[in-house]
Design brief:
Elements: E1 8-9, H1 11-32, E2 40-45, E3 52-55, E4 61-63, H2 65-70, E5 78-83, H3 86-95, E6 102-106, H4 109-117, E7 127-133, H5 142-151, E8 154-160, H6 162-168, H7 179-189, H8 194-198, E9 199-201, E10 213-215, H9 218-231, E11 242-245, E12 251-258, H10 262-275
Parallel strand pairs: 1-3, 2-5, 2-7, 5-6, 7-8
Antiparallel strand pairs: 3-4, 8-12, 9-10, 11-12
This protein binds S-adenosylmethionine (SAM).
């Protein structure tokens, strides 16, 4: 019989969980306090996990993002949790038993989110949604990000997995990348334009005076993606993402937040600032 093995998470994931927890609590409280509140709020976790994890630091259980969202003071109208792993969905079911407004889906996020979840978060129905896009690595599809931007009612948290990208796609020698890795990156970025942002002309050229290319910095690459979230996906506000670092101080991923709401931007900027100085303990 298969048994559920909880994910062991690094300190940076604990920081991420705290950021999202703080945001959903603050945002729903501000919105519930508005006199003319006309909107209903939905929470979506497209890579929901089992509902809890084990901290590598302490060995103790840590609530996952879906459980944190269930426990906020001003609850959402609906919660939609998707995971491809049936044991994790069973874990989520156990963790959310007390709540009636939880929709669980066992399968691939792509089809489920487009067919079953986003239609419940339509702008014209006065719905608003917070959607957490939290894959392990480069496993997301740009069409989901773009759809969220187009809907105008959905704001997203998004992991930009720079370590996976550096290891597998943005190699120093740009000719040495597997086709499979190129398609993963194309799927995430939405087209092949990442190539033009990922490398810049070297000032020196090579010894024969020919043009040579060198890899851009992490910051330059994440800025190009940030611009894309605004200009191609159509999010009005995309603050500087938060670099999530491991114990060697290397950036594992950038945590982006993208929204149409000036209030959302203001809240997340304060929260990013609050958590920015936390280092691996
Ligand atoms: C980083 S974990 C999510 C952690 C969770 N959001 C939290 O912070 O508590 C990523 C999850 O994505 C799930 N997953 C991987 N591929 C998936 C897919 N194609 N569709 C849906 N879920 C997927 C994995 O089973 C895993 O539980």
């Amino acid at each position: 019989m298969k048994t559920l093995k909880y994910d062991e998470i690094g300190y940076w994931s604990e920081v991420k969980l705290d950021i999202i927890k703080d945001y959903v609590a603050a945002y729903t409280t501000v919105m519930a306090g508005q006199k003319k509140a006309r909107f209903q709020y939905i929470y979506i976790d497209a890579f929901a996990g089992a509902g809890q994890h084990v901290s590598k630091r302490t060995g103790e259980f840590v609530p996952g993002s879906p459980v944190n969202a269930l426990n906020i003071p001003q609850p959402f109208l609906e919660y939609h949790f998707i995971d491809i792993n049936d044991l994790k969905v069973a874990g989520l079911e156990a963790a959310s038993r007390e709540h009636k407004n939880v929709f669980l889906y066992n399968g691939d996020f792509n089809k489920i989110i487009l067919d079953d979840v986003f239609p419940r978060a339509r702008y014209e129905d006065y719905k608003r949604a917070i959607c957490n896009l939290d894959p392990y690595g480069l496993h997301l599809d740009w069409s989901i990000i773009k759809k969220a931007g187009e809907m105008k009612s959905v704001e997203i948290f998004l992991n930009f997995p720079i370590m996976d990208i550096n290891m597998n796609v943005l190699k120093h020698d740009k000719e040495k990348v597997d086709d499979e890795q190129v398609s993963r990156m194309n799927r995430f970025w939405g087209d092949e334009s990442w190539r033009q942002f990922g490398y810049a002309e070297s000032l020196q050229g090579n010894m024969f005076g020919e043009t040579e290319y060198e890899k851009v910095t992490n910051e330059q690459f994440e800025q190009a993606f940030r611009k894309r979230l605004k200009e191609v996906a159509g999010f009005n506000f995309v603050p500087e993402p938060m670099p999530m670092r491991n114990s060697n101080n290397a950036v594992v991923y950038y945590l982006y937040f993208a929204t149409q709401s000036v209030t959302g931007e203001k809240i997340i900027k304060d929260i990013f600032k609050k958590h920015a100085q936390r280092q691996d303990a």
